[in-house]
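Justification of computing resources. Each target in the renewal requires a structure prediction run like the one illustrated here; the chain below, 145 residues long, is used simply to show the kind of job we budget for.
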Amino acid sequence: MALGVLHAKIIAAITLMGPQWWLKTVIEQVYANGIRNIDLHFIIRKLAAPVMAVLLLSLCVPYVIAAGIVPLMGVTMEMQNLVQRRIYPFLLMVVVLMGILSFQLRQFKRLYEHIKNDKYLVGQRLVNYERKTGKSSPAPPPSSP
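Resulting structure tokens:
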């Protein structure tokens, strides 16, 4: 029991130190409410149910693939056993790589915006920045009568 509480506190601390996302917002709200104003409906609906859904799906989806879909393909028993043993680490690796890839894409977009702002932004006005379009010559300004 004590190790479970310690484990939960460590996970909550790591989550609160990380980037801004829905889990951090919910945990901050629960901490802000405190013990006296605890809202169990909010905790179950916004914290416990999504976390349990993710954990259950991470267990059930690989099992359904390994025990339900692979035997329908008509592979040998040795191959079924190999898939059942290796599917959890494989899917964990895929999820981690997707997370790293999405993080890197966000960082590159942020770097691009930073470089663009440093090069072209003077105060709050863009200078010497023209978006490349398919037109070869710019349209003449409308004349007023």
